[in-house]
Amino acid sequence: MTKPVMLMLSAITTGCLLSAQGVAQAQSAAGSAWVPYSAQFTETITTWSQSSPNRTTKQSLIEEKRSKDGSLLSVRSENGHVTSGTLWKSCGQILSLDYIGKRAIPSRQAPRVHTKLPSTTPTGSRIIAGVQCVTYPILHLQGGSGTICHDMADDLPVLFEMHTVFNGTHQDYVKQLVLIDLGSDPGSVVGVPEGFTELAAPSGSPLSCGAKK
């Protein structure tokens, strides 16, 4: 069932859990199924410097679809126009989606894995967009701190916020779930968009799914 929610000031993540040591993930068991979903997230990036109080805010809408095999399609829009997208195949191949040239371009390889809880003590739990998640404090490897809230039962990123300072520039990153259809398999929708040409990875490249055994 689709569960809408009003936009909240707190944030959420479409990514992985972070700990003080970096990304905390665990390899999924062979053949382990994923809980499929179709979801919408808001992403807000606010930037300002110590020399100027003026703040710049950039807002995007991210639509995500995940299939039972773990394939993940993320499409980002700004002001109602699609600006970019990423397809992360179950085999680990990541494709950047060029919506102007209608091309799916191999970018890198990273295994699709299920999330592992950070070793830090949780600070509580909350319900966002009808989904209950557990909240953890997180640190960024290059400085900064934030919060993540994750639904471990469905391996679903629900809340992510990060606050960093670099060379006098402050940045607040907030990503939040606003709509979720959980458990309904989007199936073939999680693939290269219709009308796109998928470019081949160089022969023998680790980016090639066929090269992964």
Overview of the molecule:
- The protein has 213 residues and is mostly beta strands.
- It has a single domain (2-195), classed as outer membrane lipoprotein receptor (LolB), chain A (Clam).
- The protein is built from no helices and 17 strands.
- Strands 1, 5, 6, 7, 8, 9, 10, 12, 13, 14, 15, 16 and 17 form a 13-stranded mixed β-sheet that branches. A two-stranded antiparallel sheet has the order 2-3.
- Strand 15 and strand 16 form a beta hairpin.
- Residues 1-31 have low confidence and may be disordered.
Give the SSE layout:
Elements: E1 2-4, E2 18-19, E3 22-23, E4 25-26, E5 37-49, E6 52-66, E7 72-78, E8 81-88, E9 93-98, E10 103-109, E11 114-115, E12 124-128, E13 131-139, E14 145-151, E15 156-166, E16 169-182, E17 197-198
Parallel strand pairs: 10-17
Antiparallel strand pairs: 1-16, 2-3, 4-11, 5-6, 5-16, 6-7, 7-8, 8-9, 9-10, 12-13, 13-14, 14-15, 15-16
- Contiguous uncertain segments of 5+ residues: 1-31
Largest β-sheet summary: 13 strands, mixed
Average pLDDT metric:
81
At CATH's second level, what is the architecture? Clam
Number of helical stretches of at least 4 residues? 0
Output the structural class. mainly beta
The rounded Rg comes to 18 Å
**What share of the residues lie within helices?**
under 10%
Number of strands: 17
Beta-sheet strand percentage?
over 45%
| N/C terminus separation | 37 Å
The name of the CATH topology is outer membrane lipoprotein receptor (LolB), chain A
- How many discrete domains? 1
In N-to-C order, the SSE pattern is: EEEEEEEEEEEEEEEEE
State the CATH class: Mainly Beta
Q: Which word captures the global form?
A: globular
